[in-house]
Write a structure and sequence with these properties.
alpha+beta, 10-stranded mixed β-sheet, 3-stranded antiparallel β-sheet, 7 helices, 31% strand, disordered C terminus
């Protein structure tokens, strides 16, 4: 990403299993405050820290005096569930743990193989996860307690990073140009020059960008099935589970969404990936967002009007669903820069 970064103070550090980069025209104290937000949220909401608030809530089913960060993340996760009609479902914690994703990803063996991997067998969501499809009743506040429904285990990985990026961005927002980026998810303030140049990574070749976007601000988030993959008992897994099947998603390789906040962009990107190259871009368009879905062959399918943002790259703009049922069809027009 570029925009005369030499005029910005830049801070890089590791948090939430990724590299965080922040830049501001303000002072080092602002960067200190914004970085502290990442460390505090990771300490409280990590599923991989046994004494985090989230781990204790999942283990005991209730937690006394929850932090504002946990309550906010639970509320945003529930909103994401409703917004996506259940495609974004934070109740997959037990399922991910059963797939072997019970520790920081750096401790899992990487899976280098062709896409798509064979699906694990017998990996249904189970009664505890699939129950309550309305998204109501799986967590509640009772006085000083936050309580989960029996059998529910929450994974906040789908919103915690985006929320933290949003919170850190608020610290930097009033001091001129800034950005906060964590593993490709970002909030962009007013650029120093005409626009920020934002690359959309090729999921099949992380060393290159499929697209370069010119953005004047806002939030961007991406989801990919090619980054966090591992092998357990001879089966390949990744961290993006389709709640409709309880199995790792195979509909697309990656998705990127643009939205007013990073948390919302995270939710929309995951849902768009699950809906695939035809449904994903139109889903984003219906919600007033823009984005792309990278199909299994590497082609990039975009929501209507997305081509206006391109500085380089090629997309197929999905302009309308032509058929329904199990065989969705679409009309697309090529946009190249």
């Amino acid at each position: 990403m570029g925009s005369s970064a030499g005029e910005l103070r830049v801070r890089r550090f590791r948090s939430m299993g990724t590299t965080v980069t922040m830049a501001t025209q303000g002072g080092e104290d602002l960067l200190d405050d914004a970085a502290h937000i990442f460390f505090r949220v990771e300490e409280r909401l990590s599923r991989f820290r046994p004494e985090s608030e989230l781990s204790r809530l999942n283990r005991e089913g209730r937690l006394e005096n929850p932090s504002p960060e946990l309550l906010a993340a639970l509320a945003v996760a529930e909103e994401g569930f409703k917004l996506t009609a259940g495609l974004f479902d934070p109740r997959v914690g037990r399922l991910l743990r059963g797939f072997g994703y019970d520790r920081d990803f750096s401790l899992l063996a990487s899976a280098e193989d062709e896409w798509p991997p064979p699906l694990p067998q017998g990996a249904g969501l189970g009664e505890a996860v699939s129950a309550g499809a309305s998204g109501r009743g799986w967590w509640r506040v009772e006085g000083d307690l936050v309580v989960l429904d029996p059998g529910v285990e929450i994974d906040l990985g789908g919103v915690a990073k985006g929320l933290t990026v949003d919170w850190a961005a608020e610290v930097l927002r009033d001091e001129g140009a800034f950005f906060v980026e964590a593993g490709g998810d970002m909030v962009l303030g007013e650029p120093l020059e005409e626009c920020w140049r934002v690359g959309v990574e090729d999921p099949l070749d992380p060393s290159r960008d499929l697209l370069v976007l010119g953005l004047g601000g806002g939030a961007v988030a991406s989801s990919s099935v090619t980054k966090r993959r591992w092998v357990l008992a001879g089966a390949f897994y990744h961290h993006l589970v389709d709640p409709r099947t309880g199995q790792p998603a195979t509909s697309a390789l990656a998705a990127t969404a643009l939205a007013p906040t990073c948390a919302r962009a995270e939710v929309l990107a995951k849902a768009a990936l699950l809906l695939g190259p035809s449904g994903g871009p139109l889903f984003l368009h219906r919600l007033g967002a823009r984005g792309v879905v990278v199909g299994k062959g590497g082609s990039v399918f975009a929501s209507p009007g997305f081509g206006d943002l391109l500085l380089s790259g090629e997309v197929l703009e999905v302009v309308g669903v032509l058929g329904g049922g199990s065989r969705e069809a679409w009309a697309a027009s090529a946009v190249t820069w």
